[in-house]
Amino acid sequence: MIGVEAARRAILAGVAPLPAEEVPLLDALGLVLADTIIATADIPPFRNSAMDGYAVRAADLDHATRATPTRLHVIAEGPAGYAPRGTVTSGTAIRIMTGAPLPPGADTVVRFEETDEPTRDAAHEPAHDSEESRVAIFVAQGPAINVREAGEDLRAGNIALVAGTALRPAELGVLASLGYGRVRVHRRPQVAIVSTGDEVVPPGQPLAPGQIRDSNSTTLAALVRRYGGVPRLLGVARDTVAELTATLAAARDADLILTSGGVSLGDYDMVKDVLRAEGRIDIWQVRMKPGKPLAYGQLGGKPFLGLPGNPVAAYVSFELFARPIILRQLGHAALDKPTIRARLTERVRNGGGRQHYVRALVTAGPDGPIVRPTGEQGSGVLTALTRANGLLVIPEGVEALAADALVEVEMLHWEQGGGQFPSADQER
Ligand code: AMP
Ligand code: MG
């Protein structure tokens, strides 16, 4: 039997990022960039106005005040989306909109609020392109005010995003601004999921005496999808070597194979036998609770994780071992679960001395996060997980954690934290 950290290291040593493929930009959300992206152009591509106002020469405004405004001829309009329509010379201005290129000759933009534009009666004003059009400017201001420089966001030739970056909405926006419609990312792993057990029946079928419904397939598939993999449900295999072998044959082209159940010491626990016969077994049993039984190895050269059958144990083992495999295959560098330090509301004991993952709820307390166990900790009690948002870790060999102790919680998700915790996009 080995400890959790040693098991994780051994498992991850044999896992590498999957090859890259090109996908439409939006489909790359949450995936990891395969190439470093160099900006091929300045962003923004041209010097432009940051405000609606008047493009002028700062030198013309030297003495402008509200009491003694500077009056300028308005020679043109400058809407966004067009090349400048005129050159600003001393004594003139171009009425300009946010995002429009700064016209030649102009070096600063005066906002409408600093001119008589808001107080003018439009119906009685001559059109701006007429000789008569004038604007009164109420402020003196220097050059480059309300002006966005070309390349102020990104300069051509500079690195925009490095390979290995996880693509969130902002990164996708950067790629779009550079003109990318598609992007190369590490492809998603196909994850085969097999439930085992003569007693286990797929949802939707009637239960005979002694049978239970297959919840693990659904829970594990949802976890696979949450972390970016593509679940492939292969159904339930009965507890015979022949049937498990046959079912697993359909998993040979997957990038990761997950089974649940049949991995302990019982008479019908066939997973190890099949793995030993058809592939390779590297790890069996980890010093943790819930979920001591765990088989890791390879089948057809693909990583194989035999998870325990108890629903909570299967879930926790997935978080600890399958999640980092999927993230590594996706090309992510950060594989650890996000953790939070929280004040424990009550004493929690660790019977048995294995590393204990206690289902717990973190909420906002008066002096920072507090954490309380969610009650019944049996490894079959899946509803305890529905009330939890984290796993409180009692390290191996630690007898108990005292009430009021500051403890480490691996967050499963952040939604139930009363809004005080990092947002849901940190769920990974
Ligand atoms: P096993 O490791 O196969 O002995 O299973 C341990 C416990 O988990 C047993 O009570 C099983 O009935 C239960 N179990 C196994 N597989 C599933 C599953 N797919 N869904 C729900 N419970 C399961
Ligand atoms: Mg079983």
Furnish the topology, listing elements before pairings.
Layout (H helix, E strand, L loop, with lengths): L3 H10 L6 E5 L12 E2 L9 E2 L3 E4 L13 E9 L13 E5 L11 E4 L22 E4 L9 E2 L10 E3 L7 H9 L4 E5 L3 E7 L3 E2 L10 E2 L2 H11 L3 E8 L3 H9 L6 E5 L10 H8 L1 E5 L3 E2 L5 E5 L2 E6 L3 H20 L8 E6 L3 E2 L5 E11 L2 E6 L9 H4 L3 E5 L5 E2 L4 E6 L17
Parallel strand pairs: 5-6, 12-15, 12-16, 13-14, 16-20, 18-23, 21-24
Antiparallel strand pairs: 1-11, 2-10, 3-9, 4-6, 4-7, 5-8, 17-19, 19-20, 21-27, 22-26, 23-24, 23-25, 25-27
Helix pairs in contact: 1-6, 3-6
Report the structural category: alpha/beta
* Uncertain parts: 422-427
Mean pLDDT: 93
Please give the order of strands in the largest beta sheet. 15-12-16-20-19-17
Helix content: 10-25%
The number of helices is: 7
How would you describe this protein?
The longest helix has 20 residues. It is elongated, with a radius of gyration of 32 Å. The chain has 7 helices and 27 strands. The C terminus is likely disordered. Helix content is 17%, strand content 29%. The chain starts with a helix and ends in a 17-residue tail after the last strand. Helix 1 packs across helix 6 and helix 3 runs parallel beside helix 6. A hairpin with a 2-residue loop joins strand 19 and strand 20. The chain has 428 residues and is α/β, with parallel strands linked by helices. The strands form 8 sheets. The protein has a 6-stranded mixed beta sheet, sandwiched between helices. A 5-stranded mixed beta sheet has the order 7-4-6-5-8, with no helix packed on it. A 5-stranded mixed β-barrel has the order 21-24-23-25-27. Bound molecules: adenosine monophosphate (AMP) and magnesium ion. Adenosine monophosphate binds next to helix 3.
